[in-house]
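Schema walk-through. Below, the input block comes first and the output block second. Nothing else is stored per chain. Lengths vary across the set, and this one has 156 residues.
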Amino acid sequence: MPNSDFPSIKNESQPVAAKGRLLSLDLGTKRVGVAVSDELQLSAQPLPPLKRSDWKTLLRQISELRHSFDAQGVVIGLPLNLDGTEGFAAQEARRIARNLSLSLPVPVHLQDERLTSHAAEESLRASGVRGRELTARLDSEAAAIILMDFITHKRI
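--- output ---
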């Protein structure tokens, strides 16, 4: 689904930077998956996940990552229900996206993340990843898929 259905939180008319790294977040209840694109926005690499914590700690960690990679935008997975409706998790993602948009000097975008965790798990299992390693890598692998979906749809 094109990301234009989920406009950026900060200045909805602001275009996505054509170049420069983007940071992606997959918000879970225990972990936050993280991925970053290359500067040409051709690929996405999973990073070690963040432990889900209080808002101030989470904001500090995301801000540090954004700064260290010089990310020109942040993409947050929007966990819609399969029928496209929004439940509690989607509302929470929107709340966090709005708060980040007020706290970070870059645009914050939402991207439909339906079935990304499933796709990430299939990809990791196909690579032979199992058990605790699978659990540890799953959220960031999903964040990388979310980011690639966002990059692909912004080019359409």
